[in-house]
Amino acid sequence: MEPLGITAYRLAKDTSIPNMAVSEILRGKRRISPKVGLRLDKYFGVSEEFFIRLQNQFDIDKIKEMEGEEIDQIKAIARFL
Predict the structure, then answer these.
(1) CATH code for the structural domain at 2-72
(2) Annotated domain spans of the chain
(3) Per-10-residue mean pLDDT, the chain, length 81
């Protein structure tokens, strides 16, 4: 947003996403819902589901950070290629 000169207030106003929701998303206190994701996709001119995929990857990275060692101990019963 910064390189584009877009403030959180402007983003909220231009997309009809509540200002509080935008602020909480930017601070990592709220997930990007499909509804918000579609609005962000349209506003920033990116592919549909871009922001949802970004949110999912963020969630996966956080889980790996918190539980990675435990997850690494799980043995796979089969491998699919």
Answers:
(1) 1.10.260.40
(2) 2-72
(3) 94 98 95 96 96 95 94 86 64
